[in-house]
């Protein structure tokens, strides 16, 4: 059986990840309420109940409150820390006064960000740190100094990136002593660029594809774990209101429902299973905080193993809305 790139690096974890972006209330500086902690606890318990042991954060989610909320859960249940893999991200700075929102891979900012993340989560180490979005001013040697310091101090075990193409990954990797372990990007049955990129080589239609050329192949060759954000397509094919949606989305949602019925599972499992059927062994980062919806994802891996080629292509072609070349 094929194993995930993360497992090949010795990180034992679940195929599904729970994204913690909704935790902690709104994106504001208002204090966390008990209700937010209870909601996060229910979501985490639902995830644990279906075997999810990996949790995705970023320092900016709800302005730090997502991590702080998770920190409350860890404090209440200290034994949880060793049972889960915690990943967070840094490198995005929110707008402040006259300075716009921006990216910052400077050594000082990376080190300061990780201190903040650890403090909010109330943990001594992060399993994985991702650099959130490519900083045009990044200097790989400077990033290497920061990551080296985080590694040697035991604050971070593994490193990765997010929203980077393979050239950017290679550029950064050239200075890093350790292999980049993760790249997290938007991929789903509605965000099809990752597949379209493979299909439209040497074609004008490929000009409108928004996904790094060779990214999937490079990741597989280098054993980089690809993670998909937005994997449920925000519910577009699994029960969200279809009012005002295109015929393409309506037809694809109907196909997802038919397949779910035929396989005795949920639409969520079909949508995720389609993504996980790709040989890159993609890890979906679920964005739901609704316990029922999280549990509805339980069968995703089983579906991915049993989804036929015909079924996979039927879903892909239906969602792209026109025939393959
Ligand atoms: N690296 C990056 O740049 C980046 C960017 C964005 C996100 N992320 C990560 O990826 C995670 C997931 O992203 P995402 O939230 O875009 O992904 P998603 O899993 O595709 O969407 C989840 C959202 O869709 C809603 N939803 C799902 N099914 C629904 C249905 N049937 N009816 C109504 N609403 C439905 C959920 O609401 P409920 O909560 O009500 O289920 C939730 O708001 C985030 O938590 C974060 O960890 C990373």
UniProtKB/TrEMBL annotation:
<dbReference type="InterPro" id="IPR023210">
    <property type="entry name" value="NADP_OxRdtase_dom"/>
</dbReference>
<feature type="domain" description="NADP-dependent oxidoreductase">
    <location>
        <begin position="15"/>
        <end position="301"/>
    </location>
</feature>
<dbReference type="InterPro" id="IPR050523">
    <property type="entry name" value="AKR_Detox_Biosynth"/>
</dbReference>
<dbReference type="InterPro" id="IPR020471">
    <property type="entry name" value="AKR"/>
</dbReference>
<dbReference type="InterPro" id="IPR036812">
    <property type="entry name" value="NAD(P)_OxRdtase_dom_sf"/>
</dbReference>
<protein>
    <submittedName>
        <fullName>Oxidoreductase</fullName>
    </submittedName>
</protein>
<dbReference type="Pfam" id="PF00248">
    <property type="entry name" value="Aldo_ket_red"/>
</dbReference>
